[in-house]
Amino acid sequence: MRRRSGAPEVDRIYEGDALELLPAVPSGTVDLIITDPPFAIDFKAQRLNYNRKGSNVIEGYQEIPEGEYGSFTRSWMAEAARVLAPSGSMYVFSGWNRLRDILEGLDAAGLTTVNHLIWKYQFGVFTKKKYVTSHYHILFVVKDPKHYTFNKIDHYPEDVWVISREYWKGRKKTPTKLPSELVKKILLYSSNPGDLVLDPFLGSGTVAYVARQEGRHFLGFEVVPEYCAFARDSLSGTTGRR
Ligand SMILES: C[S@@+](CC[C@H](N)C(=O)[O-])C[C@H]1O[C@@H](n2cnc3c(N)ncnc32)[C@H](O)[C@@H]1O
Questions:
Q1: Cβ(29) to ligand 1 under 6 A?
Q2: Which domains does the chain possess?
Q3: Rounded to two decimals, what is the model's pTM?
Q4: Rounded to the nearest whole angstrom, what is the distance from the C-alpha of residue 22 to the centroid of ligand 1?
Q5: What distances in angstroms separate CA 164 from CA 9, 50, 101, one per listed residue?
Q6: Engineered SS bond to 183: which of 161, 210, 219, 240, CB 3.0-4.6 Å?
Q7: For residues 10 and 1, is the Cβ–Cβ distance under 8 A?
Q8: What is the rounded distance in angstroms from the CA atom of residue 10 to the CA atom of residue 107?
Q9: Is residue 54 predicted with pLDDT exceeding 60?
Protein backbone atom coordinates (compact mmCIF):
# COMPACT_ATOMS: atom_id res chain seq x y z
CA MET A 1 0.00 0.00 0.00
CA ARG A 2 1.36 3.42 -0.89
CA ARG A 3 1.87 5.56 2.23
CA ARG A 4 -0.14 8.74 2.40
CA SER A 5 -0.31 11.07 5.34
CA GLY A 6 -2.93 9.69 7.73
CA ALA A 7 -3.07 6.30 5.98
CA PRO A 8 -2.46 3.27 8.20
CA GLU A 9 0.99 1.72 7.99
CA VAL A 10 1.15 -1.79 6.58
CA ASP A 11 2.31 -4.77 8.67
CA ARG A 12 0.52 -3.32 11.66
CA ILE A 13 -2.51 -4.11 13.80
CA TYR A 14 -4.76 -1.18 14.76
CA GLU A 15 -7.10 -1.16 17.73
CA GLY A 16 -10.45 0.41 16.89
CA ASP A 17 -13.76 0.23 15.04
CA ALA A 18 -13.32 -1.00 11.47
CA LEU A 19 -15.98 1.46 10.29
CA GLU A 20 -13.81 4.32 11.56
CA LEU A 21 -10.46 2.88 10.44
CA LEU A 22 -11.38 1.71 6.92
CA PRO A 23 -11.95 5.23 5.49
CA ALA A 24 -8.24 6.01 6.11
CA VAL A 25 -7.13 3.16 3.83
CA PRO A 26 -6.37 4.54 0.33
CA SER A 27 -8.65 3.34 -2.48
CA GLY A 28 -7.54 0.44 -4.66
CA THR A 29 -4.54 -0.58 -2.53
CA VAL A 30 -5.51 -3.93 -0.96
CA ASP A 31 -4.97 -7.16 -2.90
CA LEU A 32 -6.94 -9.55 -0.70
CA ILE A 33 -9.40 -9.26 2.18
CA ILE A 34 -9.98 -12.31 4.38
CA THR A 35 -12.51 -11.70 7.11
CA ASP A 36 -14.84 -13.38 9.54
CA PRO A 37 -17.06 -10.49 10.67
CA PRO A 38 -19.11 -10.45 13.90
CA PHE A 39 -22.33 -12.46 13.54
CA ALA A 40 -25.07 -10.67 15.55
CA ILE A 41 -25.92 -13.79 17.55
CA ASP A 42 -25.78 -14.28 21.29
CA PHE A 43 -22.25 -15.49 21.05
CA LYS A 44 -21.58 -15.47 24.78
CA ALA A 45 -24.15 -18.22 25.20
CA GLN A 46 -22.32 -20.35 22.67
CA ARG A 47 -18.69 -19.63 23.41
CA LEU A 48 -18.08 -22.73 25.52
CA ASN A 49 -18.70 -24.76 22.39
CA TYR A 50 -15.61 -23.24 20.81
CA ASN A 51 -13.22 -23.92 23.65
CA ARG A 52 -14.42 -26.46 26.14
CA LYS A 53 -12.70 -24.91 29.13
CA GLY A 54 -14.39 -21.52 29.56
CA SER A 55 -11.55 -20.06 31.63
CA ASN A 56 -9.25 -20.26 28.61
CA VAL A 57 -11.52 -18.07 26.50
CA ILE A 58 -10.42 -14.42 26.42
CA GLU A 59 -13.53 -12.38 27.24
CA GLY A 60 -14.79 -9.24 25.56
CA TYR A 61 -16.06 -10.46 22.18
CA GLN A 62 -17.76 -7.51 20.51
CA GLU A 63 -21.13 -8.17 18.88
CA ILE A 64 -23.41 -6.14 16.60
CA PRO A 65 -27.06 -5.68 17.69
CA GLU A 66 -29.32 -7.81 15.47
CA GLY A 67 -31.38 -4.90 14.11
CA GLU A 68 -28.21 -3.10 12.96
CA TYR A 69 -26.55 -6.02 11.23
CA GLY A 70 -27.80 -5.24 7.71
CA SER A 71 -26.64 -1.61 7.71
CA PHE A 72 -23.39 -2.53 9.50
CA THR A 73 -22.68 -5.14 6.81
CA ARG A 74 -23.48 -2.78 3.93
CA SER A 75 -21.25 -0.06 5.43
CA TRP A 76 -18.11 -2.16 5.88
CA MET A 77 -18.56 -3.95 2.55
CA ALA A 78 -18.84 -0.65 0.65
CA GLU A 79 -15.49 0.34 2.19
CA ALA A 80 -14.02 -3.09 1.44
CA ALA A 81 -14.96 -2.72 -2.23
CA ARG A 82 -13.40 0.76 -2.34
CA VAL A 83 -10.05 -0.29 -0.84
CA LEU A 84 -9.69 -3.41 -3.01
CA ALA A 85 -7.28 -3.15 -5.95
CA PRO A 86 -8.89 -3.56 -9.42
CA SER A 87 -7.72 -7.21 -9.43
CA GLY A 88 -8.49 -7.69 -5.74
CA SER A 89 -10.63 -10.34 -4.10
CA MET A 90 -12.32 -10.96 -0.77
CA TYR A 91 -13.27 -14.04 1.26
CA VAL A 92 -16.08 -13.43 3.75
CA PHE A 93 -17.07 -16.02 6.36
CA SER A 94 -20.68 -16.35 7.43
CA GLY A 95 -22.83 -18.69 9.45
CA TRP A 96 -26.14 -19.69 7.82
CA ASN A 97 -28.19 -17.46 10.15
CA ARG A 98 -26.86 -14.11 8.81
CA LEU A 99 -26.15 -15.26 5.27
CA ARG A 100 -28.98 -13.16 3.77
CA ASP A 101 -27.43 -9.91 5.05
CA ILE A 102 -23.98 -10.95 3.84
CA LEU A 103 -25.22 -11.77 0.31
CA GLU A 104 -27.23 -8.54 0.10
CA GLY A 105 -24.22 -6.53 1.32
CA LEU A 106 -21.97 -8.06 -1.34
CA ASP A 107 -24.53 -7.25 -4.06
CA ALA A 108 -24.91 -3.67 -2.82
CA ALA A 109 -21.11 -3.27 -2.86
CA GLY A 110 -21.05 -4.34 -6.53
CA LEU A 111 -18.79 -7.35 -5.95
CA THR A 112 -19.08 -10.50 -8.07
CA THR A 113 -19.30 -13.93 -6.45
CA VAL A 114 -16.87 -16.46 -7.92
CA ASN A 115 -17.54 -19.30 -5.50
CA HIS A 116 -19.69 -20.08 -2.54
CA LEU A 117 -17.41 -22.33 -0.50
CA ILE A 118 -18.38 -24.54 2.41
CA TRP A 119 -15.98 -25.06 5.28
CA LYS A 120 -16.90 -28.31 7.03
CA TYR A 121 -15.49 -28.94 10.52
CA GLN A 122 -16.10 -31.40 13.34
CA PHE A 123 -18.20 -29.97 16.12
CA GLY A 124 -18.65 -32.17 19.15
CA VAL A 125 -21.90 -30.72 20.52
CA PHE A 126 -25.06 -32.61 21.41
CA THR A 127 -28.46 -31.62 19.98
CA LYS A 128 -31.84 -33.14 20.77
CA LYS A 129 -34.19 -31.95 18.06
CA LYS A 130 -32.02 -30.48 15.33
CA TYR A 131 -28.88 -31.18 13.34
CA VAL A 132 -25.51 -30.05 14.68
CA THR A 133 -24.22 -27.05 12.72
CA SER A 134 -20.80 -28.10 11.47
CA HIS A 135 -20.19 -25.86 8.48
CA TYR A 136 -19.52 -22.26 7.58
CA HIS A 137 -20.17 -20.40 4.34
CA ILE A 138 -17.23 -18.62 2.70
CA LEU A 139 -18.10 -16.18 -0.09
CA PHE A 140 -15.25 -15.73 -2.54
CA VAL A 141 -15.93 -12.45 -4.37
CA VAL A 142 -13.94 -10.24 -6.74
CA LYS A 143 -14.02 -6.72 -8.09
CA ASP A 144 -13.42 -7.73 -11.71
CA PRO A 145 -14.47 -11.27 -12.73
CA LYS A 146 -12.14 -11.09 -15.76
CA HIS A 147 -9.04 -10.13 -13.82
CA TYR A 148 -8.17 -11.57 -10.42
CA THR A 149 -5.48 -13.75 -8.80
CA PHE A 150 -6.21 -17.48 -8.68
CA ASN A 151 -3.18 -19.75 -8.24
CA LYS A 152 -4.52 -23.17 -9.15
CA ILE A 153 -2.61 -25.15 -6.53
CA ASP A 154 -4.75 -28.31 -6.64
CA HIS A 155 -5.74 -30.06 -9.84
CA TYR A 156 -9.41 -30.17 -8.75
CA PRO A 157 -9.91 -27.24 -6.41
CA GLU A 158 -13.24 -28.25 -4.86
CA ASP A 159 -15.61 -25.89 -3.06
CA VAL A 160 -16.08 -27.98 0.10
CA TRP A 161 -13.14 -27.80 2.50
CA VAL A 162 -12.88 -30.18 5.45
CA ILE A 163 -10.55 -28.56 7.99
CA SER A 164 -10.59 -29.17 11.77
CA ARG A 165 -10.97 -26.37 14.26
CA GLU A 166 -8.02 -25.68 16.55
CA TYR A 167 -8.84 -26.27 20.20
CA TRP A 168 -5.56 -25.02 21.70
CA LYS A 169 -5.97 -27.38 24.62
CA GLY A 170 -5.00 -25.78 27.92
CA ARG A 171 -3.95 -22.48 26.37
CA LYS A 172 -5.63 -19.09 26.15
CA LYS A 173 -7.37 -18.24 22.90
CA THR A 174 -10.12 -16.00 21.61
CA PRO A 175 -13.51 -17.69 21.13
CA THR A 176 -13.67 -17.74 17.32
CA LYS A 177 -10.16 -18.32 16.01
CA LEU A 178 -10.00 -19.51 12.41
CA PRO A 179 -7.66 -22.44 11.75
CA SER A 180 -4.32 -21.25 10.33
CA GLU A 181 -4.52 -24.06 7.74
CA LEU A 182 -7.74 -22.57 6.34
CA VAL A 183 -6.33 -19.04 6.14
CA LYS A 184 -3.15 -20.34 4.52
CA LYS A 185 -5.14 -22.14 1.83
CA ILE A 186 -6.97 -18.91 0.92
CA LEU A 187 -3.72 -16.92 0.91
CA LEU A 188 -1.96 -19.36 -1.39
CA TYR A 189 -4.83 -19.49 -3.88
CA SER A 190 -5.70 -15.81 -3.97
CA SER A 191 -2.54 -13.79 -3.34
CA ASN A 192 1.13 -13.65 -4.22
CA PRO A 193 4.21 -12.86 -2.10
CA GLY A 194 4.43 -9.12 -1.45
CA ASP A 195 0.64 -8.58 -1.76
CA LEU A 196 -1.27 -6.66 0.90
CA VAL A 197 -3.86 -8.66 2.88
CA LEU A 198 -6.45 -6.93 5.09
CA ASP A 199 -8.67 -8.28 7.87
CA PRO A 200 -10.92 -5.52 9.30
CA PHE A 201 -12.23 -7.89 12.06
CA LEU A 202 -8.97 -9.48 13.09
CA GLY A 203 -9.89 -11.23 16.38
CA SER A 204 -6.88 -13.25 17.53
CA GLY A 205 -4.85 -12.18 14.50
CA THR A 206 -4.79 -15.36 12.42
CA VAL A 207 -4.90 -13.54 9.08
CA ALA A 208 -2.01 -11.22 10.03
CA TYR A 209 0.06 -14.07 11.44
CA VAL A 210 -0.33 -16.38 8.44
CA ALA A 211 0.10 -13.51 5.95
CA ARG A 212 3.45 -12.65 7.47
CA GLN A 213 4.46 -16.30 7.55
CA GLU A 214 3.72 -16.55 3.82
CA GLY A 215 5.59 -13.38 2.84
CA ARG A 216 2.53 -11.16 2.35
CA HIS A 217 2.02 -7.71 3.90
CA PHE A 218 -0.92 -7.33 6.28
CA LEU A 219 -3.17 -4.79 7.90
CA GLY A 220 -5.55 -5.70 10.74
CA PHE A 221 -8.27 -3.90 12.70
CA GLU A 222 -9.81 -5.13 15.96
CA VAL A 223 -12.03 -3.24 18.38
CA VAL A 224 -11.43 -5.32 21.55
CA PRO A 225 -8.17 -4.25 23.26
CA GLU A 226 -7.52 -7.73 24.76
CA TYR A 227 -7.82 -9.37 21.33
CA CYS A 228 -5.55 -6.76 19.80
CA ALA A 229 -2.95 -7.44 22.50
CA PHE A 230 -3.29 -11.20 21.89
CA ALA A 231 -2.82 -10.71 18.13
CA ARG A 232 0.24 -8.48 18.63
CA ASP A 233 1.74 -10.97 21.12
CA SER A 234 1.27 -13.85 18.73
CA LEU A 235 3.00 -11.85 15.97
CA SER A 236 5.92 -11.21 18.28
CA GLY A 237 5.98 -14.89 19.27
CA THR A 238 4.96 -14.60 22.93
CA THR A 239 1.78 -16.71 22.67
CA GLY A 240 3.60 -19.64 21.12
CA ARG A 241 2.85 -21.57 17.96
CA ARG A 242 -0.32 -20.96 15.91
C1 LIG B 1 -15.50 -13.75 14.27
S2 LIG B 1 -14.31 -12.80 15.05
C3 LIG B 1 -12.87 -12.90 14.04
C4 LIG B 1 -12.01 -14.08 14.37
C5 LIG B 1 -10.67 -14.09 13.64
N6 LIG B 1 -10.85 -14.42 12.22
C7 LIG B 1 -9.67 -15.07 14.25
O8 LIG B 1 -9.16 -15.96 13.56
O9 LIG B 1 -9.41 -14.93 15.46
C10 LIG B 1 -14.89 -11.16 14.75
C11 LIG B 1 -14.09 -10.09 15.47
O12 LIG B 1 -14.58 -8.80 15.10
C13 LIG B 1 -14.45 -7.93 16.22
N14 LIG B 1 -15.30 -6.75 15.97
C15 LIG B 1 -16.63 -6.61 16.18
N16 LIG B 1 -17.04 -5.39 15.77
C17 LIG B 1 -15.94 -4.75 15.28
C18 LIG B 1 -15.73 -3.47 14.69
N19 LIG B 1 -16.72 -2.61 14.51
N20 LIG B 1 -14.48 -3.15 14.28
C21 LIG B 1 -13.43 -4.02 14.46
N22 LIG B 1 -13.58 -5.25 15.02
C23 LIG B 1 -14.81 -5.62 15.41
C24 LIG B 1 -14.85 -8.82 17.39
O25 LIG B 1 -14.38 -8.31 18.63
C26 LIG B 1 -14.20 -10.15 17.00
O27 LIG B 1 -12.91 -10.28 17.56
A1: no
A2: 12-235 (3.40.50.150)
A3: 0.90
A4: 14
A5: 33, 12, 26
A6: 210
A7: yes
A8: 28
A9: no
